[in-house]
């Protein structure tokens, strides 16, 4: 009987440090879900085609199913569980998704929200067409796309207005 090779890794997720021993082939998605119990990030296609597993690494959106956990070591990872404020106040995108009814079954919603945050932060929310283009990598089997675009537009306006107010 041969033992599987395991490697120690340290992950910084949602501001918390986690030490794990995983096989080198373990994806960030599986590390989040199976090793740390952070099940908000969803496993959809497991091939990088649906966007359900979208998280942020060092502020950039990535597909956790295509990223090895070891590749994320030493980098700041943010999953959907780390998006709201510590006091439970929802991020503007989360609140807009609720207000615009931008989900039906909810399975794709965490990935949609994480992509929407990046869309706004990267300045790709200037028009509905631009939002649709940026969000094209996130699939919604229920077809809530018009509501998703409306939520991104609403959140982008709210974030811009709060940034102007803070200045």
CATH superfamily of the largest domain: Beta-grasp domain
CATH class descriptor of the largest domain: Alpha Beta
* Tally of domains: 2
User: N- to C-terminal separation?
Assistant: 64 Å
Calculate Rg over CA atoms: 17 Å
Poorly predicted parts: none
Q: Which strand order does the major sheet show? A: 2-1-5-3-4
- How would you sum up the major sheet? 5 strands, mixed
* Number of helices, counting only DSSP H or I runs of 4 residues or more: 5
Count of distinct strands? 5
List keywords for this structure.
DNA polymerase, domain 1; alpha+beta; oxidoreductase; 15% strand; 5 strands; single chain; 5 helices
Would you kindly provide a written description of the structure presented here, covering whatever features stand out?
It is a single chain. The protein is of the alpha+beta class and 167 residues long. It folds into 2 domains: 75 residues, Roll (Ubiquitin-like (UB roll)), CATH 3.10.20; 75 residues, DNA polymerase, domain 1 (Orthogonal Bundle), CATH 1.10.150.120. Helices cover 35% and strands 15% of the residues. The protein has a 5-stranded mixed beta sheet with strand order 2-1-5-3-4, with helices on both faces. β3 and β4 form a beta hairpin. α2 packs across α5. It starts with 6 loop residues before the first strand and ends with a helix. 38% of the residues are buried. The mean pLDDT is 96. Its EC number is 1.17.1.4. GO terms for molecular function: xanthine dehydrogenase activity. This is Xanthine dehydrogenase iron-sulfur subunit. Keywords: Iron, Metal-binding, Oxidoreductase. It comes from Mesorhizobium escarrei.
